[in-house]
Amino acid sequence: MVIFEHSQYFLIPLCILFLSYLKIRTRKKSPAPTNWPLVGMLPGFLQNIHRIQDYITEILNHCGGTFVFKGPWFSKMNMIFTCDPANIHHIFSKNFSNYPKGPEFRKIFDILGDGILNADYELWEFNRKTTLLCMSNVKFRSFLERSIWEKVENGLFRVLDYYSKQGIAVDLQDIFQRFTFDNICKLVFNYDPGTLSVDLPCIPCEKAFNDVIEALLHRHFLPESVWKLQQWLKVGKEKKLFEARKALDEFIYPLLITNEGDQNDDFNLLATFRREFEEKNGSSAYSRHFLRDTSLSLMFAGRDTTSTTLTWFFWLIAKNHLAKTRICEEIEVILDKRWKFFNAEESRRLVYLHGALCESLRLFPPIALEHKAPMQSDTLPSGNNLVDRNMKVIISFYSTGRMEGVWGEDCLEFKQERWILAGGGVKQEPSYKFPAFNAGPRTCLGKEMAFIQMKMVAEAILCRYHIEVVEGHLVAPRNSMILQMKHGLRVKLCQKNV
Ligand code: HEM
């Protein structure tokens, strides 16, 4: 009896314990990795490395846009991840001088040497000024338009006509990579390697890029001592990187010699660099290495970014019939139902196409992660996050495009209308909200060139072929520095009666 009389004293704490248990069970589990002693959060990241972009996005969404990653003890791997537009604006523009690429970036991207993507300060200024000098030349622009046009007619159409007549499925991503590789080689070296031809030749240098971008992403999430050991032992991704580097050098160095006497120095990137560099420093053994680094960086900047965007664009519009119909109707009106050469000015009238390309870039920015090293400790505008000068800052452009707070509840939907003003023009978004082309003083120098190229290719294909993605084709982002499609994009084409 005494026990029953005092049972409430036992029952109340028991109920509280039970309710707390239920609360813990039903609470939404945080996707953030556990911070273990010694190894920090690394195990959680490595476990999710096969889906790293989505994993980072889940964490950032859960943490309101900024997250501190604790690396293994003594590994110098503490990082701050962010996708918050206020932080992007702060890092890339307002406090630009405090956020160079830094020595860690140079170590990871050592393959690019002293090229523009790797350089800081004076070296970067020289690289940027010289690239701009060439790209803003009127002759370069018409050379660019002419070479894209020729590649469409003599490369793209020939290959796609062949596959459509044979009724064989083709990997569009591979076709676009070949297209952009030939094109960037023409612009850098004034040389067309002809990888976009019917027999789809295997040129080691062209394929080497894929091995490089995969290894470079892994270097971000492995302690330096681990990837350096793999490099030394020549195993795993480091072995592939070593072989890729050899293939790239074997391709580039001979072209530097061939290009030496090139007279077309007004519109050839390599010739412009050679002239400017030698005027400033004179000719030396270093100048050949510098020109190799510069050429390789420009090839990197121009090849995969554009081909990857085109691949996602064709997949996205294949799933959005209305969007595709609108783009095709617009092209028919502007081109008068006939594929013809158009220049940059005319391409600006293709508003729906422009909107659809921006939407593809928002959802699948080819350079999905950026990497910075603060010179001095700093406080980020979002929630007073303190950035220690020994930390890396990783900015996820992929996540920015997928934040409800930035793009609204429908942020995961493909809506080209987002980019079109009520009056019919293109809506411009600030680069810190739409950072696919980077933001601030290091904004992409090839943005306009990329849009011309993408519009010409998209338009040429949409005018000439019906396209269907092969049934059951698996689509997922590849685990690499550039957000390619893991299994390519297999499509069947059928030529239209035009
Ligand atoms: C859809 C296509 C493209 C996208 C999304 C894109 C995006 C970007 C991004 C995010 C960066 C910053 C990279 C970094 O700092 O690590 C960048 C830089 C750069 N891009 Fe592009 N790019 C595209 C096409 C091109 C093309 C066709 C070229 C022509 C060669 C080009 C030339 C450059 C150069 C030279 C830089 C270095 C700018 C600097 O550091 O000052 N890009 N691009």
From TrEMBL:
Belongs to the cytochrome P450 family. Its main location: membrane. GO terms for cellular component: membrane. Pfam families: p450. This is Cytochrome P450 CYP4/CYP19/CYP26 subfamily. It is found in: Membrane. PANTHER family: CYTOCHROME P450. One of its GO terms (biological process) is lipid metabolic process. Keywords: Heme, Iron, Metal-binding, Monooxygenase, Oxidoreductase. InterPro entries: Cyt_P450, Cyt_P450_CS, Cyt_P450_E_grp-I, Cyt_P450_sf. Heme binds at residue 444. Its cofactor is heme. It is a single-pass membrane protein. GO terms for molecular function: heme binding; iron ion binding; monooxygenase activity; oxidoreductase activity, acting on paired donors, with incorporation or reduction of molecular oxygen.
